[in-house]
Q: What sequence folds into this?
C-alpha cells in the first residue's frame, strides 16, 4: 500500500491482542472518521494476532464500510500470520469490507483443515436470528471440545459455560441491533501462568451497553452515568434494559464461571473498558477515556485446570 | 499566603444530637454486628465500639456517635487539601469530626483524629446537613470538604450532605486515606465530586509501620473505582517519611501505579514530612529526596508532580506538559497567576487535565 493512495493509515503494532487493538485505535486520536474517504489498515508488521485482534480488525472494517469508507488492508508480511488468518476464516469475511493489498493471498501452503479442530473456533459471524441456532450449536460443540480437551473442565462446568456464552451471542442479536463475530483459540500462555489458556472474543457493532441500559439507569445516575458504570452494572449486577425478572443473566453467568475458574473477563464498550482480573494477570481493571469505538467487545481468557 | 478562616457558628447546639443508626452493617450471632464502612470490617460485640471508636453496638444495632458532630470547621482554599486541578483558587467549607481508622504515629491532626467521641477534652457542635449547605453558600464556598479526620468515619452524615449538595449544585470533596469499602463508595459515588487520597507507600510493610494496617491493595482499588467508575476528580498525595516510605522502589511503584491505573494526568503531590508526635525523632524529609521523587514521577510518565510543604519551591506551580509554560503560580495556598483558559494552556493550546473556572 502506498501511503499516498489513502488518506489515513492505521498501522497495527506487531502484536494485535487486546492491548494491541487499543494501540491501533489510539492512532486515530481525536480525529473523526468523516475526514478521510480512503483509509488504510496496515497489518504488514504483525507477528502475532489473536481472536480478539482479528475480530477487532473485522469489526473496524465493517464499521468503516458502514460509514461509506473505502478500506485497503495490507496483509501481514509474515506468511505464518497470513496462514493463521486464513485458517481462522478471517479472509472469508473480508469480501465487501476490505480491498486487499496485495490483492491475492499468495500462500505457499495452507494449514491442514479439520472441520472438527479441537484448538479453535473459526471466526463466526452472528447476523440474523435465523442463524442463531446454527451458531449456538457450533459454538457449543467446538467450545465444549476445546474446554474439555485442553482445559480439562468437567462436563457440568462446560455445560454451564456454554449456556452462558450462547446467551451472550444471542444478546448480540437481541440488544445490539447490529452484527457480531465470535472467535476462539487455544494457546500456551507462558508469560505468567505456564498453562494452556483458551481465548474467546465476542464482539458486536451495536448500540453499546450504555445506550442499551440508558432508559432504565441514566436518570438514576444523572451526570455520573458513563460507559464504565454501565459495563459494571451489566457485568457485576446483571443489569438489563428490561425490567422483568430473569433478564441480564448471560454476562453475570459468564462472570461467575470465569471467576470460579480463575480466568479473566474484559468488556469494552464506548470509551471504557472494565475487566475482572485473576491473580496471574497484572494490569489495571478499569479504563476510561479510551478511543470511542461502537458496540461491545468482550474478551474471555480461561486457564487450564490443575490436574 | 491564603489561609483558612473560622466559620461563625452562632446558634448551633453543642453536645450529642442522639446516636444515629448506621447503614452498611450485618447482624451476626449473639447480637454482634459487622460494620462495612471501612476495610477493617470490625465485628463489634454488644456494648463495644469498633476500632475507630465512633460506632457502638447497642442491643445488636450499630450506632454512629459522630453523625453531624463537627470538631473543626473553617473556610479554606482548595489548594490546602491539596487539590491543584479542581477549581483552583476556590474557597471550600472544610470540616472534620473525631476519630480515625488509622493510628499513624506522626499524625498532624492527632488532637481530633486520635480523640474519642464523648470525652470532655474535645468539644463538638452538631450541624445538621441542611445548615451545613447553608453555611457553605453563606460563606461563598464552591464546595464542602470533609477533611481533618477520616471522612468515612461519619459516612452517613457525609452521604446525607453530599446528596443535598448535589441537588443544590455545591461541589463535594473527601480528603481520605482511601480505606473506604467498595460498598460504601458505591453508595456515595453518585454524589461525591472529588477524592484526595493518601497513598502512604507501596508495600504492606510501609502501611504496617505508618498506619497500623495490613495490606494496601484495597486502598488502590477504592481509588481506581472513585476515578474510573464514579468519575470523581482524583489527586494523590504521598507524605515521604525518611526511612519509612521514601525508597526509590516504592516511589517508582506509586508513580507507575498512578500512571497505569488512574492516568498520566493525575496529579501526584509529594510532601515533606514534619517531625511530630511519636515520630518526633525522625528528621524532616530532605529537599533532595523530594526532588528525586518528583523526577521519578516525571520519568514514569506523570504529567503533574508537585512538591508540598516546601513553600516557594517552583514545583508547587503547574506547568504545561507540552510546552513547559508556567500556567498556575502559587504562593503557599494562594493562586498568584492562572494562565489556563478554557482548560487549555494559553501558549500552546494543550488541554490541561482538571476542572478550571477560568
A:
Amino acid at each position: 500500500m502506498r501511503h499516498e493512495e489513502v488518506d489515513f493509515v492505521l498501522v497495527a503494532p506487531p502484536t494485535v491482542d487486546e492491548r494491541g487493538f487499543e494501540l491501533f485505535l489510539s492512532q486515530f486520536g481525536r480525529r473523526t472518521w468523516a475526514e478521510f474517504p480512503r483509509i488504510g489498515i496496515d497489518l504488514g508488521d504483525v507477528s502475532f494476532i489473536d481472536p480478539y485482534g482479528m475480530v477487532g480488525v473485522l469489526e473496524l472494517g465493517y464499521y468503516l464500510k458502514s460509514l461509506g469508507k473505502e478500506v485497503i488492508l495490507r496483509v501481514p508480511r509474515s506468511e505464518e500470520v497470513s496462514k493463521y488468518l486464513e485458517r481462522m476464516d478471517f479472509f472469508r469475511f473480508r469480501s465487501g469490507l476490505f480491498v486487499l493489498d496485495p490483492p491475492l493471498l499468495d500462500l505457499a501452503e495452507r494449514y491442514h483443515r479439520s472441520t472438527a479442530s479441537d484448538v479453535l473456533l473459526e471466526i463466526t459471524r452472528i447476523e440474523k436470528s435465523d442463524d442463531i441456532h446454527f451458531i449456538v450449536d457450533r459454538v457449543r460443540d467446538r467450545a465444549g471440545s476445546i474446554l474439555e480437551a485442553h482445559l480439562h473442565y468437567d462436563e457440568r462446568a462446560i455445560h454451564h459455560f456454554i449456556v452462558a456464552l450462547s446467551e451472550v451471542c444471542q444478546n448480540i442479536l437481541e440488544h445490539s441491533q447490529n452484527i457480531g463475530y465470535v472467535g476462539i483459540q487455544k494457546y500456551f500462555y507462558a508469560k505468567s501462568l505456564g498453562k494452556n489458556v483458551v481465548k474467546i472474543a465476542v464482539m458486536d457493532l451495536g448500540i453499546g451497553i450504555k445506550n442499551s441500559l440508558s432508559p432504565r439507569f441514566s436518570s438514576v445516575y444523572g451526570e455520573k452515568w458513563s460507559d464504565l458504570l454501565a459495563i459494571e452494572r451489566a457485568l457485576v449486577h446483571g443489569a438489563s434494559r428490561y425490567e422483568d425478572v430473569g433478564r441480564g443473566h448471560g454476562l453475570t453467568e459468564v462472570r461467575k464461571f470465569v471467576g470460579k475458574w480463575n480466568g479473566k473477563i474484559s468488556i469494552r464498550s464506548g470509551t471504557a473498558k472494565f475487566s475482572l482480573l485473576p491473580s496471574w494477570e497484572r494490569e489495571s481493571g478499569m479504563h476510561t477515556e479510551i478511543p470511542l469505538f461502537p458496540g461491545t467487545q468482550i474478551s474471555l481468557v480461561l486457564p487450564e485446570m490443575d490436574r | 499566603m491564603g489561609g483558612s478562616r473560622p466559620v461563625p457558628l452562632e446558634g448551633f447546639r453543642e453536645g450529642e444530637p442522639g446516636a444515629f443508626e448506621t447503614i452498611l452493617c450485618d447482624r451476626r450471632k449473639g447480637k454482634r454486628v459487622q460494620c462495612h464502612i471501612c476495610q477493617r470490617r470490625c465485628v463489634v460485640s454488644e456494648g463495644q465500639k469498633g476500632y475507630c471508636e465512633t460506632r457502638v453496638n447497642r442491643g445488636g444495632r450499630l450506632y454512629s456517635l459522630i453523625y453531624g458532630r463537627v470538631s473543626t470547621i473553617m473556610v479554606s482554599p482548595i489548594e490546602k487539601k491539596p487539590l491543584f486541578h479542581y477549581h483552583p483558587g476556590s474557597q471550600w467549607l472544610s470540616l472534620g469530626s473525631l476519630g480515625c481508622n488509622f493510628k499513624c504515629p506522626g499524625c498532624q491532626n492527632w488532637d481530633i483524629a486520635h480523640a474519642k467521641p464523648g470525652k470532655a477534652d474535645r468539644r463538638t457542635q452538631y450541624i445538621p446537613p441542611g445548615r451545613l449547605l447553608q453555611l457553605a453558600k453563606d460563606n461563598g464556598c464552591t464546595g464542602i470538604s470533609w477533611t481533618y479526620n477520616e471522612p468515612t468515619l461519619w459516612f452517613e452524615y457525609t452521604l446525607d450532605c453530599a446528596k443535598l449538595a448535589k441537588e443544590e449544585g455545591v461541589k463535594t470533596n473527601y480528603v481520605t486515606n482511601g480505606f473506604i469499602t467498595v460498598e460504601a463508595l458505591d453508595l456515595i459515588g453518585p454524589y461525591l465530586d472529588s477524592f484526595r487520597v493518601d497513598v502512604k507507600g507501596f508495600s504492606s510493610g510501609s502501611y504496617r509501620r505508618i498506619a497500623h494496617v495490613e495490606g494496601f491493595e484495597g486502598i488502590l482499588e477504592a481509588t481506581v473505582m472513585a476515578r474510573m467508575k464514579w468519575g470523581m476528580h482524583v489527586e494523590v498525595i504521598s507524605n515521604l517519611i525518611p526511612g519509612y516510605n521514601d525508597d526509590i522502589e516504592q516511589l517508582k511503584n506509586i508513580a507507575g501505579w498512578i500512571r497505569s491505573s488512574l492516568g498520566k494526568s493525575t496529579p501526584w503531590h509529594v510532601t515533606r514530612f514534619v517531625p511530630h508526635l511519636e515520630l518526633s525523632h525522625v528528621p524532616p524529609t530532605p529537599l533532595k529526596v523530594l526532588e528525586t521523587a518528583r523526577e521519578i514521577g516525571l520519568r514514569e510518565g506523570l504529567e503533574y508532580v508537585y512538591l508540598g510543604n516546601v513553600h516557594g519551591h517552583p514545583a508547587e506551580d503547574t506547568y504545561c506538559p507540552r510546552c513547559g509554560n508556567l500556567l498556575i503560580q502559587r504562593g503557599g495556598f494562594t493562586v498568584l497567576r492562572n494562565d489556563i483558559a478554557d482548560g487549555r494552556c494559553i501558549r500552546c493550546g494543550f488541554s490541561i487535565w482538571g476542572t478550571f473556572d477560568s
About this structure: The mean pLDDT of chain A is 84. The first strand of chain A starts at residue 8 and ends at 11. Helices of chain A lie at 18-26, 51-66, 79-87, 132-151, 155-176, 208-221, 227-237, 249-260.
